[in-house]
Design a protein that fits this description.
The structure is a homohexamer of 132-residue chains. Chain A is built from three helices and four strands, in the order βαβααββ. The first copy, chain A, has helices spanning 23-30, 61-76, 94-105; strands spanning 2-14, 37-49, 113-120, 125-129. Chains D and E meet through β1 and β2 of D and β1 and β2 of E.
Chain lengths: 132, 132, 132, 132, 132, 132
């Protein structure tokens, strides 16, 4: 059982907001994150599986990259996360993004099992979902 | 003569657009950058001067950090560069940001001379102004 | 269940020493680490919890940053780890620091559960404690 | 129980190939990886154990570095992974390297237990083996 | 006058050798670099020019990326630098690569002037050519 | 004319102090830097010269590394900069270190000319001396 990880980058805008709160409450809870701003996000997706002895691969990471681009990155990159369909009705926090990406790609990696979806919003703020 | 550099970070949204162009022309020239998106920007400001022998400093970098925050970073961070007053009427490209930051801080560093303002939009895209 | 991580930095001195050993033995076991030297440390603290659907957060990472600063970083930064009260009687190795930080902050994160305290002494030397 | 990690670097060539495939099939499956190329690899090895209270160490990371160099890095660095004895008969993918390194060093760390061998082929492509 | 820089990555093999030297002499001068090995190279190309006020660009960095890929990176990536036509007859040191890349791209950036070609072989070994 | 750079790391303690000032004045000017603390320093030394066509080198960077280690790094690493002979009588700021390193190594690189000594105290605080 070996874990393989592919990292991809995207640059998006977002703002955090709960429509059930008034302006003041949004400012109090989300601070400057209530303003439209943005990040260079780094997304790391980890699969777990047996090594295929004819290739030496658990899963072809170029294929994983293509899946990530098709399902999420090409939609979210150079766009606002608040407009991404997979995040509809959700505050686009790093926490909600990792769960959404998990749901978009789960079951699309053949025999390899999805193990973790990790998102660096900055080098200091990180979220990870392991399907638990 | 020694060069000293202070790096500061900020996370902002922006979109690139020329209001004199129609939608199609904006898309053709700016591509996905015409959409609202964002970055974790890294700003590096370099001063040049003699070492003050009573301190060993060319310029106190904590003071430089405070100047950068007051003049630009606290305004641009967690906001849209398209709304920053110092960039009014300018497309908020990395090129225009470095010139704007230069103008905001020039002449505020005592005996030290401003040498360079450098901006990393991502690790791959960088602009620098040296007052030339 | 989502994991969220906050990274904070501090710059400290330390030296490694067992007072029960003589000088030669300290040098033999700790090598150059027996001399006072220092590092730019990176501390990563990970919490585990359910996403709060009104905010999209597991735990507000600005609050986690404030806890880390108040409990440890503001005391250890620009100081010697050998003088930090939470490390009293302990050799200030990365291993002892991560256990000490865990004990300082455990139980202070509301519904979120402390999952991991990880310390990068350099990019090459790392310790992590998971409360096991 | 604390985890300690040592990172080491090496620069090697490799190419991916299955001798049972013809040229075209190798190109189809391995793409440009079928050509001889190379990487600056980063290897991270993690041990798990109790802190020794006389030293504050789980395991002396300088000793771990020496083991890694002797068993693998000094052989693989500035060489081709296709020629490394421990990878004989295996395609030198990141997956096969982490399993091979695990087998080379397992049981050589005294009371500390080998927990993970992780290899960054680039910042974007990563494999990890945990002995499962 | 503003400087703009585009960074691109490629992973290549190389070995250093002077065919006029015998084996022993090659080993003595080039050490382990005489063996086929490889690197994740980072190439940074800097242009210098006036900001075009209709776009805010000195030069469209996506176009610069395309030029770099077409002229050098798509040929050198996942290949051996010893086989790259632009390096024919030259030892593929970082020094020779930066001069070769300069010659391949000079004069292809419209009104912008080529200022610097910089190559990171590793984070520790760097060469730069400024056309002097 | 090509520039070549070698980066080396060292981990040292230091504190900033002017013995002509009283305690309060030292605290006021140097803040927390008046306490003994430390850093993982990155030192980048750049030489400038013609490429030697028999080797493809401007200067063998392994030799430059050896000079840097012998003249400065082996003395400063895992020690206090306040005790380093080359910094005697100087406040061990990044500014004073780069000038001291320049003086230690100047004239020791054969035909290559010393161009720059640059020191990263942290990723945010940097000093550089170019012999001007």
């Amino acid at each position: 059982m070996v874990y393989v990880t592919r990292r991809v980058s995207f640059s998006s805008a977002h703002h955090l907001r709960n429509d059930g709160y008034d302006e003041e409450e949004n400012k109090r809870i989300f601070g400057k994150c209530a303003n439209t701003h943005g990040h260079n996000y780094e997304l790391e997706v980890t699969l777990k599986g047996e090594i295929d002895h004819s290739t030496g691969y658990v899963f072809d990471l170029k294929v994983l990259k293509d899946i990530l681009k098709r399902e999420f990155v090409d939609i979210a990159d150079h766009a606002s996360l608040n407009d991404v369909p997979a995040l509809k009705g959700l505050n686009p926090t790093a926490e909600n993004v990792v769960v959404a990406v998990w749901r978009l790609i789960e079951g699309k990696m053949g025999n390899a099992k999805l193990h973790s979806v990790k998102l660096y919003e900055t080098v200091n703020n990180i979220a990870e979902y392991r399907g638990e």
